[in-house]
Write a structure and sequence with these properties.
homodimer; 411 residues; alpha/beta; Aspartate Aminotransferase, domain 1; Aspartate Aminotransferase, domain 2; seven-stranded mixed sheet; four-stranded antiparallel sheet; aminotransferase (chains A, B); PyrdxlP-dep_Trfase_small (chains A, B); DapL/ALD1 (chains A, B); LL-diaminopimelate aminotransferase (chains A, B)
């Protein structure tokens, strides 16, 4: 009798984002004429940089001849893309990595979800609260998160509160945690972490022999030169951190699918007997067994983002959303609403007015201003009084949404 | 202190196929003038069907405008592709499935590797011997395979021998097994399973409340109308089988990356208390948490294979390799070598002559005829006297390789 992995049954029945979609769809059915503006989606809407599209056409054409055909890709990714990453994303910031420390994937989510496979199921984990649900849920699936308790928390998860009181910068915990997930610039709060703060975490990890899973998929939105784009800009991080990057938010690759994971060879974890094992080697084995490489077209397309034409277009792409962000920030500032973020990421974390909780705030804005946000509770207990708004819509829509919110906030 | 998943340390240090590549590369260095013919690779070499390339260009162009841009794909795949699959791969063979029973992925290997996540780590597994190493290795990684014992076998794996004595058709085991992996047409032996044989397995699974993981990625190569392309052609299979398909070998998608997994809603496994859980639902949760959809371009490209133009080109694609297969079969028949397969799959399973083991046979052919095969031992103990040759090269190269083998076999 085949038995199921019962850890799956601990997951909430509904995937949070599906629940949001369901509620929006109900609204649409009952209000067919309403003009809804979606500021809930983390998905992009601008066309791809033309350099990426040109590279796609070129790659597609290569498939028409045996001589230029590409079959199975190297499991870790094509050298042409890895070299471009090393040179542009790391060497340019003073970080030197080897090609074999980069793993090209089909998007950051897959690797963030699977990276736990190479670690024991009983390591303790630490997450900021709020945080994107996929970090915790991938740990629930393998039993690492423990049990879901009455207070709405997982028994084996250490929550690091991010609130206005600490400017959404988690305090270093007093206890030891084995694996810590950090995402900066942060989804959902839109807050970035400077070198001083990030250094505290790297030092904590070194002192406690802990691992940091660093999600820097929004690094392209950083505006301040003092804020690190990569955790490896911090001394010692190469011993304790795995970094996840993606082209999704940098260049609109959410439908193209390409990202990468960095595992320096110095990063180790131990066996029960205390032997230190190189995680790069384990992940390489994982990839050989469970992956057949990322799409050639996607890799060529990503490579094109590093050409001079591509870089210019990526900059324009990011600027567009940061322009929206600035516009939203200015307009939100004219309301009585309390909000955070919007400096180094296209996210706003808006405090629900009065005694509304996040679902109530979500429904109020949907029904009274026809604006879709994301209820903060989907990101953790500390999100229960917040709504996330993103700037990933057109400038016109962002502006109109803010006008509606200004109008609505007056009432 | 972060601890590693020690099951990874049980894996052989080297990935088998990397070892083969390493040996071939050593040969190349010491024999720079040798003209090597590669019949070891399971990778294709023909250009993509033009319909698929045209669809890629069209999809790439859609990314240039906000109106036709595609961001995150539906997690289970785009309806346009799912509908084409249901109609052409299943309804045409009398199998009726719902759209939500299909999961589009980035290639079969990922899902075959990850499917075990939704099942308990202590289910017993059964595999044919020989079998592609990824089935066992993905189970080793999570501890399900047990320990590697001196005889070169995993303690929790039931091996189902496939030898000339049983025409490479595994006998139904006397004990109960929870999860059975079957791959037909088979890689590496090249043998297909007819309805009568497959029916025995479906009945075994029903009687024993077992699960069958059915890999039918080579179904397009089936020549005999009596041989099932899908396990769901067998009555009752929808209750007990998960099927994996891929466009890699059907249409040369090894570099494009697209495949799909079928999990009928009737397929269940149980909790320890005996409650039956729908695996479709668990896999859907898995996909929501650890996957962001397959590339839009790859999905559009796969869809084009189901147009009338695409179908014609796929047929030509498959015919080319089956023509190679027939040619190789005819020429091998003229030698003293004993071999199997080559009827419904582009694989030959060749018995090592004399007392050679599979690595020795591999090296002999490499050094004496400059032909690369794959040592059978990489597929299991029963492969220790065999070499796998594939027909995935050009007709000219296949022919020349066979001439060399004829010459070599004479000596």
């Amino acid at each position: 009798m085949a038995l199921v992995n019962e850890h799956f049954l601990k997951l909430p029945d509904q995937y949070f984002f599906s629940e949001v979609t369901k509620k929006v769809n109900s609204f649409k059915v009952t209000h067919p004429k309403a003009h809804i503006i979606d500021l809930g989606s983390g998905d992009v809407s601008l066309p791809l940089p033309q350099a990426a599209v040109n590279a796609m056409h070129k790659a597609a054409e290569e498939f028409t001849s045996s001589h230029s055909f590409h079959g199975y890709a190297p499991r870790q990714g094509y050298p042409f893309l890895i070299e471009a990453i090393l040179k542009n994303d790391y060497l340019s910031r003073g970080v030197s990595l080897e090609p074999s420390e980069i793993f090209i994937n089909d998007g950051a989510k897959t690797d963030i979800g699977n990276i736990g496979d190479i670690l024991r199921h009983d390591n303790s984990i630490g997450v900021t609260d709020p945080i994107h649900p996929c970090y915790i849920e991938s740990n629930v699936m393998c039993g690492r998160a423990g049990c879901f308790e009455e207070e709405g928390l997982w028994s084996n998860v250490v929550y690091l509160p991010c609130t206005p009181e600490n400017q959404f910068m988690p305090h270093i915990p007093s206890q030891r945690i084995d694996i810590i997930y950090l995402c900066y610039p942060n989804d959902p709060t839109g807050v970035a972490m400077n070198k001083t703060e990030l250094k505290k975490w790297v030092n904590y990890a070194i002192e406690n022999d802990a691992l940091i899973m660093y999600d820097s998929t929004y690094e392209a939105y950083i505006q301040d030169p003092d804020i690190p784009h990569s955790i490896y800009e911090i001394k010692g991080a190469k011993k304790v951190a795995i970094e996840f990057r993606s082209f999704s938010k940098t260049a609109g690759f959410t439908g193209v699918r390409c990202g990468y994971t960095v595992i320096p060879k110095e990063v180790t974890a131990t066996t029960l007997k205390g032997e230190r094992i190189m995680l790069n080697k384990l992940w390489n084995r994982h990839r050989s067994i469970k992956f057949n490489g990322a799409s050639y077209i996607s890799q060529r397309s990503a490579e094109a983002l590093y050409t001079s034409e591509g870089k210019k277009q990526v900059k324009e792409f990011v600027s567009y959303y940061m322009h929206n962000t600035q516009l939203m920030k200015d307009m939100l500032s004219q309301t009585s609403l309390s909000f955070f973020g919007g400096n180094h990421a296209p996210f706003f974390w808006i405090k629900a007015p009065g005694h509304l909780n996040s679902w109530q705030f979500f429904e109020t804005l949907l029904y009274e201003a026809n604006i879709v946000g994301t209820p903060g509770i989907g990101f953790g207990q500390n999100g229960n009084e917040y709504l996330r708004l993103t700037a990933f819509n057109t400038t016109e829509q962002c502006k109109e949404a803010m006008q509606r919110i200004q109008q609505w906030a007056k009432q």
